[in-house]
């Protein structure tokens, strides 16, 4: 029976990063992945393919609607959806092969199969060819990610009632798509198909979209998406979805009455659940909470001393970069080194157009905690680069402690803010004040000048607005 210092169950962003870092630190390491391709949900049916379609559909939409305003006449445009999907697939394949190369480079053993516990040092691997083998491990890391949630009694078939996985692989543009859930994934997928020609309606149980984000950003985001043509039913509850030969009928309780809505495709986007079933956690005495999550301590250790858990199977935002940070940290903890994760500086991004990005506390959270703060805001319509790019929707908002001026949260909606958020994440990691950002020189003309102006606005001294 082969023995390893570290065995990681799951080859997603948290798992493969953990395996590589553990190997770099001198551990004999193996990573078990059942999908047949590394990268997890993120790379195979999540972050990466969705961004491919978001980028392609945005280029199509701009060519169709915006190029003429800056003197570019394109003539007749046509959509080749099959080619767009092929480009997405090739991008994914290239990146998954890249991880395999990194495993070889760092001498990580890649085991294709499903791993489960026999005891706290033994993993049973059911291999993709049907055979079974056992391996030994001094330390085991659970990094099995998450899967799509559905509503009770509504079954996802990935043909008419689809999850994000099915929405990434539609064979044709639907005439109409109904999205159940106004969160990040639903709005990103809705944006793709809206740009490509579908009518898109979103049904959200809450009275606002993107729950958990700063409310002012949510409300502004909603207005922009409505302007783009997306329709919304807020404070609405889906009661049932019935398939028929040409689509589905969605029964919704909204505005005090029950209505039926017809759609070609229904996208179920109400959240995700941890993949902890099938691990045989009972064999090692690890229990999960009602949501299926595993409890860990500050060093990501479970109730069993040599078993750790990271990513979507533990509490916290279900984000690839959060899992990556935990993966690197746990590899360092196992190796007797110091692992670092700052949960207050994990950014979140919505890759629509405009993008939405945030880090730290929202205004609502600060008010609830009784923390006094100052607000600095700056609109992109006053930023020269955004104006000349004809892409000036949105604003940047900085929340700083009223007494110390320490940056507590930053919220952005606008062009390329998913990249721009990194500046303020770094600032917050170093405990920066709004004044620190305001006194830092930013190149002109750039979108990032809006960050400096928002920081100046905290002290009511923005220059260009």
Number of strands: 21
What is the CATH architecture descriptor of the largest domain?
A: 3-Layer(bba) Sandwich
Report the major sheet.
5 strands, mixed, barrel
Q: Taking all residues together, what is the mean pLDDT?
A: 97
Could you say what the CATH topology of the largest domain is called? FAD/NAD(P)-binding domain
Instruction: State the low-pLDDT regions, or none.
Output: none
Structurally, the number of domains stands at: 3
Helix content: 25-40%
What is the number of helical segments per DSSP (H or I, 4+ residues)? Answer: 13
Distance between the termini: 68 Å
The geometry reads as globular
What is the assigned CATH homologous superfamily of the largest domain? FAD/NAD(P)-binding domain
Write structural notes for this entry.
The protein has helices at residues 13-24, 40-45, 47-65, 81-105, 164-167, 184-195, 215-228, 320-334, 363-369, 384-388, 417-429, 434-438, 449-458; strands spanning 3-9, 29-33, 109-119, 122-127, 132-142, 146-148, 161-162, 176-180, 199-203, 231-233, 237-244, 247-254, 257-263, 265-268, 272-274, 307-309, 348-350, 355-360, 373-379, 395-401, 407-414. It is an alpha/beta fold. The protein folds into 3 domains: 3-148 and 273-341, FAD/NAD(P)-binding domain; 161-270, FAD/NAD(P)-binding domain, CATH 3.50.50.60; 346-458, FAD/NAD-linked reductase, C-terminal dimerisation domain (Enolase-like, domain 1, 2-Layer Sandwich). A 5-stranded mixed beta barrel has the order 1-2-3-4-5. It has a 5-stranded parallel sheet with strand order 7-14-8-9-10. A hairpin with a 2-residue loop joins strand 12 and strand 13. Helix 3 packs parallel to helix 6.
């Amino acid at each position: 029976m082969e023995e390893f210092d570290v065995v990681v169950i799951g080859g997603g962003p948290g798992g493969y990063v953990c395996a590589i870092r553990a190997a770099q630190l001198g551990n004999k390491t193996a990573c078990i992945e059942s999908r047949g391709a590394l990268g997890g949900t993120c790379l195979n049916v999540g972050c990466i393919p969705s961004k491919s379609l978001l980028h392609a559909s945005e280029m199509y939409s701009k060519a169709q609607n915006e190029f003429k305003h800056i003197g570019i006449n394109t003539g007749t445009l046509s959509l080749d959806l099959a080619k767009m999907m092929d480009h997405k697939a090739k991008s994914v394949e290239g990146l998954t092969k890249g991880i395999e190369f990194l495993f070889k480079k760092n001498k990580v053993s890649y085991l294709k199969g499903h791993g489960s516990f026999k005891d706290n040092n033994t993993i049973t691997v059911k291999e993709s060819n049907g055979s079974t083998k056992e391996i030994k491990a001094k330390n085991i890391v659970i990094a099995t990610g998450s899967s799509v949630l559905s509503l009770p009694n509504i079954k996802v078939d990935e043909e008419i009632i689809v999850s994000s996985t099915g929405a990434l692989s539609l064979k044709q543009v639907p005439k109409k798509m109904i999205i159940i859930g106004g969160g990040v994934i639903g709005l990103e997928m809705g944006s793709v198909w809206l740009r490509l020609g579908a009518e898109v309606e979103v049904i959200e149980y809450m009275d606002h979209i993107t729950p958990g984000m700063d409310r002012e950003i949510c409300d502004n985001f909603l207005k922009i998406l409505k302007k783009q043509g997306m329709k919304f039913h807020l404070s609405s509850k889906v009661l049932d979805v019935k398939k028929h030969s040409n689509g589905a009928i969605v029964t919704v309780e909204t505005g005090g009455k029950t209505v039926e809505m017809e759609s070609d495709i229904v996208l179920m986007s109400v959240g995700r659940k941890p993949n902890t079933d099938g691990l045989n956690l009972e064999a090692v005495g690890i229990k999960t909470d009602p949501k299926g999550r595993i409890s860990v301590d500050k060093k990501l250790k479970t109730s069993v001393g040599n078993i750790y858990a990271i990513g979507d199977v533990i509490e916290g935002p279900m984000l690839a970069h959060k899992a990556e940070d935990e993966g690197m940290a746990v590899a360092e903890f196992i190796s007797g080194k110091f692992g670092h994760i700052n949960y207050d500086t994990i950014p979140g991004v919505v890759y629509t157009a405009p993008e939405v990005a945030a880090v730290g506390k929202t205004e609502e959270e600060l008010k609830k905690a009784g923390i006094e703060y100052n607000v600095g805001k700056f609109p992109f319509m006053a930023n020269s680069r955004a104006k000349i790019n004809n892409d000036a929707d949105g604003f940047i908002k900085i929340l700083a402690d009223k007494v110390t001026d320490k940056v507590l949260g930053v919220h952005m909606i606008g062009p390329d803010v998913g990249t721009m958020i990194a500046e303020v994440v770094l600032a917050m990691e170093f405990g920066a004040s709004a004044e620190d950002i305001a006194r830092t020189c930013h190149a002109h003309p750039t979108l990032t000048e809006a960050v400096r102006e928002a920081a100046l606005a905290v002290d009511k001294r923005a220059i260009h607005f």
